[in-house]
Amino acid sequence: MDHNSVQPTPIDLPDHDWRPPAPSSGCEICTEAGEQRRLARTSGDLSAVTDHNITLRSHPHIRANTPH
After folding, report:
1. DSSP for residue 44
2. How many whole angstroms separate alpha carbon 16 and alpha carbon 5?
3. Rg (alpha carbons) of the chain, rounded to whole number
4. In the prediction, which pLDDT does 13 show?
């Protein structure tokens, strides 16, 4: 039995911007998510911080201003 294996070519992924997303000024949803994130970070609830970051990243104002 002949076992030849070939390792696949590595995939180059783009660098990720690890900075937390900034709320868009003038948007009530972004402002609220930013404030809730701040409170969660202050209380040490990092899971909630992540949830609010997801809200800010997925909100249309952020998506329109962030190249992804």
Report:
1. T
2. 32
3. 19
4. 80
